[in-house]
């Protein structure tokens, strides 16, 4: 990575902004370099933003970004600079807007890290993100796709759409990491159809089945579609594992990995799965650090047992990157009215994050006196020097042309009250009726 390549990339990203391109591009530069800003209007104080503070909200309201072209440009650029195996992750996060009654399409969302006496639910929007993970767990997750999850869809369905859009641009060796709520029939079918190997967490009580036994000749009735049950919460259904491995984890503690092959879900019988059971004696035994974990592998190429725990450990970079986006890049601080405006703001935040990822390769960072100088710098340390890097790169955005003060509303104009929208509450799933035994 050098300045000339980064200059060309910035011009390509600028072409993705179809309306209000100058203000949106300067807004992303201000976000990646203005470390003192805590609100959107304060970003207009950055030297990179040459417009007034009102242009920030006007750009988010009137702007337009070609999302597909944006994803194509960043995927190509980030994969060229990525070394080693290509590991990606997909996950969703919540943007709480409990008091924004004028914002449409708000639904019930899950809020983590709340006290035990508080219900972990709120009102707001959800976003699905596909990230390119770094080689070691850190906050350097590069964003390949960022989409809002409307209340008419689920996180799994939006994730499938993101995978289908990105798969032609990914190398054949790309692998995916996902959390346990993505382990569904449609998702594993999509992984097999797109030839995207995936390692996902598995609920301990999730039911899987072995291949159906051969139908005895001459026996009447429909042949069995599923074999014997396999469930992690029932040790009597396990049987002998196909393979087992003993070693140590990244902390030097004992680690045991067991594997069972040729399993499937009822919702996707044609997809063969491999289930892994990981035992860590050095774990604390809490929900955040369990001693026993279950994983499922989808893919024709087998995953080595010693790779399971170390590979899934990469997924924590997704969580750390989310934290940086929300705490430092002000992702949740934008108080806009419509979800479309927040989608544009999310792409601006993603652009700033990807700029930091590529600027890291320039080898510049600023340390505080109490920070240790390590080989692996943090996005916060690189962001402190972006104010000196961006003038060297220049900007494709045009110089603003002030047109004087606005005349304001005409005399006698009436301003109507903004419309209020109800919270979208999805109906509860109807439980299946038990079958009556003959």
Question: What keywords describe this structure?
Answer:
438 residues, alpha+beta, ten-stranded mixed sheet, two-stranded antiparallel ribbon, 29% helix, globular
Description of the molecule:
- There is one protein chain.
- The chain is an alpha+beta fold and 438 residues long.
- Helix content is 29%, strand content 21%.
- The protein contains 12 helices and 14 strands.
- Strands 3, 4, 5, 6, 7, 8, 11, 12, 13 and 14 form a 10-stranded mixed sheet that branches.
- The mean pLDDT is 91.
Helix and strand composition category: alpha+beta
Sheet-strand content, in percent, reads 15-25%
Mean pLDDT score, rounded?
91
Element-by-element helix/strand order: HEHHHEHEEEEHEHEEEEEEEHHHHH
| Terminal CA distance | 70 Å
Shape: globular
Structure summary, number of beta strands:
14
* Helix content estimate: 25-40%
Radius of gyration equals: 25 Å
| Count of individual helical segments | 12
The unreliable regions are: none
Largest sheet: 10 strands, mixed
What is this structure's SSE topology?
Layout: H1 3-14, E1 17-19, H2 21-33, H3 40-43, H4 54-62, E2 64-65, H5 67-80, E3 87-96, E4 107-110, E5 121-132, E6 142-148, H6 155-166, E7 175-178, H7 185-193, E8 198-201, E9 207-209, E10 229-231, E11 243-248, E12 254-265, E13 268-280, E14 292-298, H8 305-312, H9 316-327, H10 339-359, H11 379-383, H12 386-393
Parallel strand pairs: 3-7, 7-8
Antiparallel strand pairs: 1-2, 3-5, 4-5, 5-6, 8-14, 9-10, 11-12, 12-13, 13-14
Helix pairs in contact: 2-4, 2-10
